Amino acid sequence: YESLSVAELAKKLHREPSELIKKLFMLGVMATINQELDKDAIELICADYGVEVEEEIRIDITDLETHFEQEVSEEELRERPPVVTIMGHVDHGKTSLLDSIRNTKVTDGEAGGITQHIGAYQVEVDGKKITFLDTPGHAAFTTMRARGAKVTDLAIIVVAADDGVMPQTVEAINHAKAAEVPIIVAINKMDKLSANPDRVMQELTEHGLVPEDWGGDTIFVPISALKGEGIDQLLEMILLVSEVGELKASPARSAIGTVIEAQLDKGRGSVATLLVQDGTLRVGDPIVVGHAYGRVRAMVNDLGRRVKDAGPSTPVEITGLNDVPQAGDRFVVFEDEKTARSVGESRAMTAIQAQRSEKQRVTLDNLFEQM
Ligand code: GDP
Ligand code: MG
Known about the structure:
- With 371 residues, this protein is an alpha+beta fold.
- The chain is built from 10 helices and 19 strands.
- A 6-stranded mixed β-sheet has the order 5-6-4-7-8-9, with helices on both faces.
- Magnesium ion binds next to helix 5.
């Protein structure tokens, strides 16, 4: 249970800090606006505001967000692979491109590694890894961003050279811009006789994506996902753009990240694909994932192999959770199972509470009016 400043608590209670200071004074506590309040003081105020408020505060305090802000020293930081999302209009070749990259470049020296679908995969180019999110449509941006998760470092926007910019192309550009993620344009279907890359570049210029040759700073790569042409150049450009971004993480810390997808499996129970965004996730780690919790029982990588640990930017499928989380949910590893359980349970309660929140807010407002 963390501490809160007077100002933070006031915000959570939708009250003026001055009012809280006054209330604290009445309760015999001298406080300033930036003063940190301990658990006892928080509970004192909450009790004074009514039981419902106390519950809401306790839930807020156990928000997973707070566990994201671990202090990390500069020396711990290491380069991490970029996480890439492929977006574009329907039928412009997103799935074909993902397949083409995966078939030619899957991270594995050993032949015949059976790839399985876990919602994300990694490839290796010039000894450097790239993680691709393989979620359907714009899910990576829409569902996850709606839940406040930022998972993507770079967006590939696929535009079919024979079709040009279409409504979902523009939508994709807007998503990437809103997320402040760099964009690389892949002009696909270059093998087609009707391919007209100049037109694509012209049209995209109108949306602020200007090719380098025309004095802009957007990288355009002509490809044919079908024939596997231009894929190597595209991957090299991804690495180039990623290097500029200086993506870093600390493999030494405990893991945090986001749910890519999750479902209930008949035999294995709750199965979740997690993207480790920082730290290293290990088998046996006590973990809270959204409203679910447990211990990481088994981990499987994108090649379907059992692994014992997963570092930054690695997608893994895990089992061992008591419930099925949702895409975009955060996960945090805790030091011990007891804490994980209590945070998990508290968050599960939030879920139930959230359904009643509208009603409850009215109740709280009424309560405040009386005071
Ligand atoms: P998505 O809807 O963006 O995932 O598009 P798909 O990957 O499913 O591709 C839609 C159609 O375009 C399929 O019939 C593909 O075979 C075809 N296609 C994809 N890439 C290429 C390409 O580079 N060249 C040609 N000629 N066809 C392609
Ligand atoms: Mg598709």
